[in-house]
Specification:
It is a single chain. With about 150 residues, the chain is an alpha+beta fold. About 25% of the residues lie in helices and about 40% in strands. It has helices spanning about 5-20, 50-70, 90-95; strands at about 25-30, 35-45, 75-80, 100-110, 115-125, 125-130, 135-140, 145-150. The protein has a five-stranded antiparallel sheet with strand order 7-6-5-4-8. Strands 1-2-3 form a three-stranded mixed sheet. A hairpin with a 2-residue loop joins strand 6 (about 125-130) and strand 7 (about 135-140). Helix 1 packs across helix 2 (about 50-70). The protein is elongated and about 55 Å long. It starts with 5 loop residues before the first helix and ends with a strand. Keywords: Cytoplasm, Ribosome biogenesis. Its main location: cytoplasm. It is found in: Cytoplasm. One of its GO terms (cellular component) is cytosol.
């Protein structure tokens, strides 16, 4: 279940991050830690996300969060890159990782399988296309629950 503050934080963070030429990938509020941790994953669409990118976003977002007093009490703000072992979600991900090994999870099962692995060939509005040992397969988007880079 998503923490109720997440949509508000996304609304605050997105224009700040976009003004720097970056994208917000994910926001997670870990309330099980003391103090709680607010993690914002960012991505530089033009190159690797740098430490400088994270530092700039951290300073700017911290100022806005403090100004709006949206965060209850003490918290730790972490700005990071989503890393390579992540889920593919938007068109840019599917283009950038074409040719990489991916794991595709389906529900309900597709052709009696819930887990598929292969080299990503592409995606359109109908299917995700994989190359499995030289054989092309199209998995319908309607049954896909997630696509993640393989370990």
């Amino acid at each position: 279940m998503t923490h109720p503050l997440i949509p508000q934080i996304i609304d605050l963070a997105t224009p700040i991050v976009q003004e720097m030429g970056l994208d917000v990938v994910e926001v997670v509020f870990q309330t099980n830690k003391r103090p709680p941790v607010l993690r914002v994953d960012i991505r530089n669409p033009d190159s690797d996300t740098s430490l400088n990118d994270c530092e700039q976003v951290s300073r700017a977002l911290e100022a806005v969060l403090d100004e709006t007093a949206i965060m209850p009490g003490a918290y730790v703000l972490e700005i990071s890159s989503p890393g390579i072992s992540r889920y593919l979600s938007d068109e840019r991900d599917f283009v950038a990782f074409k040719g990489f090994e991916v794991n595709v999870t389906t529900n309900p099962p597709y052709k009696d399988k819930k887990e598929w692995q292969g080299r990503l060939q592409g995606r359109d509005d109908k299917a995700v296309y994989l190359n499995r040992k030289g054989r092309a397969i199209a998995i319908p988007c309607s049954v896909i629950t997630q696509v993640q880079l393989a370990d």
